[in-house]
Amino acid sequence: MKTIDTNYLVRLFTNQPKELAAKARDDIQESKPADILLPDFVISELIYVLEFHDELAYSREDIVEGLRLILSHPAWATDIELHQTAIAIYEASSKLDYVDCLVAALSNLGRADEVLTFDKNLKKRLRS
How confident is the model over 66-92, as a mean pLDDT? Predict the structure, then answer.
């Protein structure tokens, strides 16, 4: 199994530089379903870079759209249900970063009996 890193996904997402983005697309298109490990922390770092890097600064809407497109490809070995839920929370709440959205998604999917947090915005997004 191949593992992907954040830099690789940034190229894929931004299409810059073009030659590296094309290589990334080709590698993914040539992969078999669930052939590439896409760790949760890589997705989290991707979102952070896209949102806060001075030269990028994508909007949440653009990030959500791109993530949905990237995650729709069958090459990824990752918890798609978790990320789809987290993306929906991220899209709906401008006050949470993506890691908090992953925590909320775990709660909403019934995978966490209790979430220990002092974050009031996160608490609002947890399963009752």
Answer: 95
Only one residue has tokens 């979430």, namely 115
Strands (E), the chain: 2-3, 36-37, 76-77
Region at 116 (left for phi over 0; alpha for psi -120 to 50; beta for the rest)? beta
Distance CA 103, CA 90 (A): 11
pLDDT digit string, tens, across residues 80-92: 999 999 999 999 9
How many other β-carbons are positioned within 10 Å of the β-carbon of residue 112?
15
Q: Please state the rounded mean pLDDT for residues 65-87.
A: 95
Look at residues 58, 38, 39 and name the one whose alpha carbon lies nearest to residue 48.
58
66 Cβ neighbours under 8 A, 6+ residues apart: 13, 50, 58
pTM over 0.70, yes/no? yes
